[in-house]
């Protein structure tokens, strides 16, 4: 139960992401536009979380012993890792990918009104007993489950963090509402696990799988973990949005005071183009 294992089907996407990111970041550095160290660190940390989730004993225990460990794995893959990876992205990094026709056509999936329902459907569908147990019995289905958790989680966080510009109306206030909607959907599922009167997944009912826990207790722990993780991430997201709001307000007012158009000032402040802001401010003084 302490072994690590390599699953090529799930590791190939991680390796491809790392290779593409490294190549693009290196090219930007050569051009004198290096990716900030914090962003590179966040991206690497996100990939490290993915590796821990799919290669460490978490994978073995979650698939063969305990539902609550499997829930930890899903939260790492569907929430923590996508958040860190998206924090590591910038428009400059993504620009070559958006030049590819198919990937460019997928960009609308990151629209908040598209990403949210997709994420909710994926979250609830994969936790239906028929699909959840199918993933436990088939490695290919399990890999698809993990990839979809990560992909839809990344879309949800991309709408909030905006490595690429989002809709003009989707400011920090709406992002707070959006984040709350995401967490409410997760909290409802978590409460279903906590308060259900029966175990949802017969797969975990065997005595060799439960490590002394009843199936219902195992399920309730899984729900509590889901609820707690969501609450912590929500508080952190709200704190980040508040800091971002105060920073944007200050930058916007500074530009407006220098006679820059208010709409342009708001957009420039929203996307943190500090170097460009200084140039504009100096040209207006």
Could you walk me through the main structural features you see in this protein, from its secondary elements to its overall organization?
With 285 residues, the protein is mostly helical. Helix content is 76%, strand content 0%. Helix 2 crosses helix 3, helix 4 (67-87) crosses helix 9 (139-161) and helix 8 packs across helix 9 (139-161). 28% of the residues are buried. Residues 274-285 have low confidence and may be disordered.
What topology does this entry show?
Blueprint: H1 8-30, H2 37-55, H3 57-64, H4 67-87, H5 91-98, H6 101-105, H7 112-126, H8 129-137, H9 139-161, H10 172-195, H11 215-257, H12 262-270, H13 274-284
Largest sheet: none
- Radius of gyration from the CA trace? 21 Å
Poorly predicted tracts of residues: 274-285
Report, as a whole number of angstroms, the end-to-end distance.
66 Å
Beta content comes to: under 5%
Number of helices: 13
**Class by alpha and beta content:** mainly alpha
Question: What would the principal axes of the Cα set say about the shape?
Answer: globular
Overall pLDDT level = 85
Please tally the β strands and state the result. 0
Run of helices and strands? HHHHHHHHHHHHH
Helix content: over 70%
Structure at a glance:
The chain has 285 residues and is mainly alpha-helical.
Structural features:
single chain; 285 residues; mainly alpha; 13 helices; 76% helix
């Amino acid at each position: 139960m302490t072994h690590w294992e390599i699953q090529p089907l799930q590791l190939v996407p991680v390796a491809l992401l790392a290779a593409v990111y490294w190549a693009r970041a290196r090219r930007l550095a050569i051009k004198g536009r290096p990716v900030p160290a914090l962003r590179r660190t966040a991206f690497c940390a996100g990939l490290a979380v993915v590796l821990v989730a799919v290669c460490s004993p978490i994978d073995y225990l979650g698939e063969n012993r305990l539902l609550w460990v499997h829930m930890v794995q899903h939260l790492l893959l569907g929430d923590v890792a996508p958040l860190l990876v998206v924090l590591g992205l910038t428009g400059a990094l993504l620009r070559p990918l958006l030049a590819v026709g198919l990937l460019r056509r997928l960009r609308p999936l990151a629209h908040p009104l598209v990403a949210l329902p997709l994420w909710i459907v994926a979250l609830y569908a994969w936790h239906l007993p028929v699909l959840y147990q199918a993933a436990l019995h088939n490695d290919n289905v399990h890999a698809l489950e993990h990839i979809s958790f990560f992909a839809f989680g990344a879309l949800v966080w991309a709408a909030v963090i905006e490595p690429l510009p989002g809709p003009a109306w989707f400011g920090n206030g709406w992002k707070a509402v959006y984040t709350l909607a995401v967490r409410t959907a997760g909290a409802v599922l978590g409460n279903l696990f906590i308060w259900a009167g029966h175990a949802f997944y017969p797969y975990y009912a065997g005595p060799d799988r439960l490590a002394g826990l009843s199936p219902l207790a195992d399920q309730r722990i899984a729900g509590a973990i889901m609820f707690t993780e969501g609450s912590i991430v929500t508080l952190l997201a709200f704190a980040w949005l508040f800091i971002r709001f105060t920073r944007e307000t200050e930058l916007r007012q500074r530009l407006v005071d220098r006679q820059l158009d208010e709409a342009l000032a708001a957009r420039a402040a929203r996307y943190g183009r500090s170097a460009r802001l200084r140039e504009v401010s100096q040209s207006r003084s």
